[in-house]
Amino acid sequence: MSTATISGWCLTSLSQPQSPQNKATLRPSISARLNSPASPAPPNLIQNKPVFAAPAPIITPTWREDMANGSYDEAVEGLRKLLREKASLEPVAAAKIDQITAQLKNSDGSSSPFDPVERMKTGFIYFKKEKYDKNPALHAELAKGQSPKFMVFACSDSRVCPSHVLDFQPGDAFVVRNVANMVPPYDKVKHTGVGSAVEYAVLHLKVEYIVVIGHSSCGGIKGLMSFPFDGTNSTDFIENWVKIGLPAKSKVLAEFPNLPFPEQCAYCEKEAVNVSLGNLLSYPFVREGLVKKTLGLKGGYYDFVKGTFELWGLEFGLSPSFSV
Amino acid sequence: MAKSSTEVAIEGLKRLLSDKEGLDDVAAVKIEKLTAELQEQDHEEEFDPVRRIKDGFIHFKTHHFDKCPAYYKKLAEEQHPKFLVFACSDSRVSPSYVLNFKPGEAFMCRNIANMVPAFNQLRYSGVGAVIEYAVKHLEVENILVIGHSRCGGIKALMSLPADGTTSNDFIDDWVKIGLPAKAKVESEWSHATFEEKCEHCEKESVDLSLVNLLSYPYVRAALANKALKLMGGYYDFVNGTFGLWKADFDIKPEIIIGSS
C-alpha cells in the first residue's frame, strides 16, 4: 500500500518527522501528516472516482483465501507427503500450522486482527462515493456555511448517534455529545464546554430547536443511581459530572422507592432529560429566545431495547409585568 | 367556480400592462421576486420539528433497526466500541456520516472545535468523564480526534484579541484551550493569510488535543500496555478529503544507571 499522496486520501507512515523545529521540543514525537507545514494544502481530488475501486479479489500466484482445490483432508495429506520427502521442513511447517490454527480461532474467522486505519479508510471511501460525490450541490452549499435548525444533546454512547437514530443529514443538527446527555446549569467556571456550545448555537447559528435526547440502558444514569454521593468519590470525573442529574435521582427515589433498580434507572433516564431542559433555562440567551418564540425546547427518549422514540416539549413564557 | 383573489389581481395587472407600454420587463422582475419570496415563506412555515424528528426515527427504524434485529438486540445488551472519537459539534462533520460508523462502533464526544483539555477536575469534568468512562470502563482500543475545515471555534480562537478581553460569555473561554496551538501557528506561519492560519490551527489543535490526552493517567496506562492507539484526523469538506495520522507515544523500559 503506497503512502504517496493518493487523490482523495492522505495517509502518512509513522517514520516521517513532522518538521525540523519539533526536534527541539519536549513533546513526544508525533508522526507527520503527508503534507509538511511548508507544502501547500492537500491536493484536490484529481480523478473524480475513489482510488480504491469496488473490492476485487487479490490475484496472486498462490492460494486465494476462499478457494481450496481439494478437501481439507487432501490438503493435509499433500503436506504430509512433502514433509516425508523433505524432513528438514518439519519445524517450519509445525510453526506455520500453529499460526494457521491461531488465525482460525478468531471469532469472526478473519485472518487479520482489527485494523482501525483500514476501518476508517473504508468508512470514508464509502461516504465519499455514496454521499459526498453524489450530492455535490449540497456539499458545496454546506462548505460555505451551516444553518442547522436543531441543536441536539445526545449521550456519547456508541449506540445512540442522532445521525443514525433520527437520520440527521449534514447540515441538519449541531450536536453535543457527552456522558448521559447532560446539560449543566450556567457556570462560567465549571461548564464552559456546554456553555460555549449553547451560546454558539443560539446566538450565532440561531438554531430554532434544542432537543435533549436520553436513552435506555444509559451507563451514566446507572452511575448516577448507584453512586452514594456522600462526599467520597470513587471516580476522578464521572461522579462530578453525573451529579448534574441529582434532582432527577431524588425525584425518582421519592416517587418510586419500591421499584426494581432497572426500572428506577429507566425513569431517571427520562427525568434527567427534564432536569437538563430546566438547566437550559438558566442561560439568558435561551430564555430570551423562548420568550421571543425564536427558540423551542424538546425532550426525547430513545429506547433501543423496545425500538421506540418518545418526544415531548417544554413550554416557557413570561407574562407581561404590571405595576402593583 | 369564482375567480381567486390572485386571478383577479393578475387580471388587473394585465390590463395595466396592455394600457401602458414598456412596463412588461419591470413587471416580470417584480413577479419573479414575489414568487421567490412566497416560496421561501411557504418553506419556512412548513418546517415542523416534530414531524422531522418523527420521520427521521421512522426511517431509521424501518431501514436499519427492524432489518437487523439480531444485531440491535445484541447491541442493546452491551456496547463494545473500538473507538473513542472526539469531533466538532458542527452539523457538517458527524463521524457516523463521514466515516460511516455503525451503531456500536464509536463512543463519541462532540464539542466546540473538538477540544480535549488537559486533566482538570474543576473546569473540565465533561471531557474527563468521557475519557475516564471510555478508556477505563469500556476499554476502547483507539482514540481519534478529528478536526475539520472552516471550523468556527478555531476561527474564534484565531480572532481572540491579544489583550485577553473576551466578547462573549463562554466561547472565548472554551476555545482558549487551544492557545498553545495558536501560538505555534503564529510563530511558524506568521506571514500566512488569516484563512491559511486558521487551517493550520485546525490541524495543530488536533495535535494539541492528542498531547492533552496524555495528562489522563488511564490513557497513559493503556498506552504503556499497548492497549490503546492515538490518532488525529482532518476532514476537509471543501475539497472532500480526509487526512489521518498516528501519534506515537512510546514509553520505553527504564535503564538502571549504575553508580561508579
Automatic annotation (TrEMBL), chain A:
Metal-binding found in the keyword field: yes
Names of required cofactors: Zn(2+)
Recorded superkingdom: Eukaryota
Cofactor descriptive note: Binds 1 zinc ion per subunit.
Binding-site residues, Zn(2+): 155, 157, 215, 218
Pfam families membership: Pro_CA
Bias (Polar residues): 13-24
Keyword NADP: no
Reactions mediated catalytically: hydrogencarbonate + H(+) = CO2 + H2O
Record's function text: Reversible hydration of carbon dioxide.
Official protein name in the record: Carbonic anhydrase
Organism annotation: Vitis rotundifolia (Muscadine grape)
Source organism phylogeny: Eukaryota, Viridiplantae, Streptophyta, Embryophyta, Tracheophyta
From TrEMBL, chain B:
Lyase found in the keyword field: yes
Reaction(s) the record says it catalyses: hydrogencarbonate + H(+) = CO2 + H2O
EC identifiers of the protein: 4.2.1.1
Highest taxon in the source lineage: Eukaryota
Annotated PROSITE patterns: PROK_CO2_ANHYDRASE_1 (PS00704), PROK_CO2_ANHYDRASE_2 (PS00705)
Needed co-factor(s): Zn(2+)
One Pfam assignment: Pro_CA
UniProt cofactor note: Binds 1 zinc ion per subunit.
Metal-binding is among the record's keywords: yes
Binding site for Zn(2+): 88, 90, 148, 151
Gene Ontology MF annotations: carbonate dehydratase activity; zinc ion binding
GO BP terms: carbon utilization
Keywords linked to the UniProt accession: Lyase, Metal-binding, S-nitrosylation, Zinc
Family stated for the protein in its record: Belongs to the beta-class carbonic anhydrase family.
Record PANTHER family: CARBONIC ANHYDRASE (PTHR11002:SF45)
Function: Reversible hydration of carbon dioxide.
Stated name of the protein: Carbonic anhydrase
Originating organism: Vitis rotundifolia (Muscadine grape)
Lineage: Eukaryota, Viridiplantae, Streptophyta, Embryophyta, Tracheophyta
